[in-house]
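Aim 2 progress update. The chain analyzed this quarter is reproduced below.
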Amino acid sequence: PMATTKLPETHTWAALAAVDLSAKLHYFAKVDSTGKIDLCADGGPCIGNLYEVAEAARSVSVQFGGIGKVIAAETIAIGARIASDTNGKAVAAAVGDWIVGIAISGADANEVLSFIHASSTRHA
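Predicted structure tokens:
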């Protein structure tokens, strides 16, 4: 059987997918100018991580509080401040990036990383 997680509704938000996100579970998400959910851009502001995914114009869910999961784009150490790369994967935050959270597990490229959501602020 597959393990599932129940999140409080206060930590999730659902809206329509701007593009096909069906293969993007555990990627960083943003809300676009039309109110739809899309992948985050390089170092850009993110609303959280994709928690439930679907095709374009179908409902997807984003987690924006608590402990989340995201796919790493590179090796990331425990305690690193993380941001999005150009494809919605996690990278170590660079100066000027919007910080999405703090890594609480380490990961190599294309592995799932656990992190604590942080209020999105720019890395100084």
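The mean pLDDT is 92. DSSP finds no helices and ten strands in the chain. These observations will guide the mutagenesis experiments scheduled for the next reporting period.
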